Every structure is written in C-alpha cells, then in structure tokens.
Amino acid sequence: MDGLNNSVVSEFVLLGLSSSWETKVFLMLTFSLIYLGIILGNLFIFFLVIFDSHLHSPMYFFLANLSFIDMGVASTTVPKMIGDLLNEYKIISFQGCMTQICFIHIMGGVEMVLLIAMAFDRYMAICKPLHYLNIMNPKICVSFVITGWVIGVIHAMSQFAFIINLPFCGPNEVDSFYCDFPRIIKLACTDGVKFEFIIAANSGFMSMGTFFLLILSYVFILVTVWKRASGDLSKAFVTLSSHITVVVLFFTPCMFLYVWPFPTSSIDKYLFIADFAITPILNPIIYTLRNKDIKVSVKRLSKRMVIYRR
To answer: Which of 253, 250, 259 has its CA nearest to residue 271?
Structure first.
C-alpha cells in the first residue's frame, strides 16, 4: 500500500449517469426499487435453499451461492450510485475506489466459476445421470465454491498490484458511476499502455475464455441429448435456457469492456448496469419462474406459513 503515499490525487470525482435533475430522480427511484428487489429476491432464494431439505442438491447449492454473490456484486456499486444521483459532487476516496475495484473483480471471478460449476452440474445431470450423485458429491461442490473465491482473489490482486503503485497527479474525473481498472488507469500520470495490455489480457482473457467454455459446454450437452433422444431437444432447452440467459446477460458487458478495453465513449457504464443491477434481480426471477422444484418449494413454504398462522 506504499503506492498510496506517492499519489497526489486523494479522491476521484464520479461523473455518474446523467446531469438532468428529472432523470436523476427517476433513476434514483428506479434503482432503489431494483436494489430492494435484488436483496429480497436473492435472500429469499438463499434461505429457501438452506431451510428446505428438498433443495439440498448440487444445483441449488450453487444457486444459493450465486444469489449470495449477486447481492455482493450489486452492493459494491448500486447503493453508492443511488446516493450519488442526488449529490452535485460525487466523490469517492482513493482508498474507497481501490476497495470497490477489488470487490468488483473478486465477486466477478467467483461468479464466473459458479457459472462454470452450474454448467458442469447440468452436464453431469443430463449426460451422465447414473454417475451424477457420485461425481457431484458435497466435497466437489464445496471445492468449486472455494476455487471460485481463490480465483477471484488472485484475479483481482494480480491487477491491483500494478495499479496501486501508479502515480495519480493530474485529472481525477471518472466518466462513470463506479471505479474500475480501465478508466482509472487512464488517469495515471504515466504511459499506461503496458498496464492496459495487462488488464486486457487478464480480465479480457478470463471473460472470453469462460464465456466460450460455457457455450461449448451447452453445445456439447445439446449434441449429446440430440443423439440420445433422436433429435428431441425440447427438454434440454428448457433445462439450459435459464443458464444460457444468465450467461449472456453477465458476459456481454464484461467482454465489451475488457476485450476491447479503455473506451473513448461512455457506453460501457450503461452496459454495466446489466451486471450490477439487471442480472442480479433477474436471476431469482429466472430460476424461480422456470424451475419446478423452486415452485413446489415455495408452495410448500406457503402451506407451512398458513398452518403456522392457524
């Protein structure tokens, strides 16, 4: 952390999403409702999986962890964005900015591994059902989650180690509602080309690699089902559609920013609303409305509540 002492800039100014007062009020109300929905929806899924023994299976174990991570991802940016919408000066300290960046990338790394784990779980359930319970045992499931956190921390710290020692002595305006490596490096008082390449190679490769790995896994599952079911892919599509929807929503902004990094336009900040707000609130909806086990569990919970009240 010695690099903090070498930086003249002690805070950054976030330019936010809009300069119109009416738009700011609308966005504040909208994102307040969205954030409330994120917390309540994901907490509901999280505790439903914990307390309903019928949902104690690998798929729902990963889903509960995904809900936890979604709350974390949203909480790194959305509350401050809501608070900043009505502030004329949107300030974040240098330490706060670095902390936000680290948490964003740690949570993002964990979510990528969880999505891989969920794809692997679906592959085993569909393609190797007789060996499913032996392979997807509790030890393997916990190992996936631990691996996700380890990779997330390594991913974040490997980039943070470069940026923390950069000199920041000039402009401090960030054209976004949150801090991230590409825009912060632009403000450093040094030639940031090599650092831009490091960030692009790290985050870009991780995003692209994970996305194509997931797509290939879904294609492989569909091909396997097609061969076994004589061309009937309807059930497989129903099973995988929710996962594919989440993957596309999550990775599209990531690839836009990190594969073609350091944008000259501000479109990336609007795209990342999908990762920080839209995807976290859609995940509970997608997995609840399109999942029979969750629906049955909710009905079971409702009956228990009615009986308890009596």
So the answer is: 253
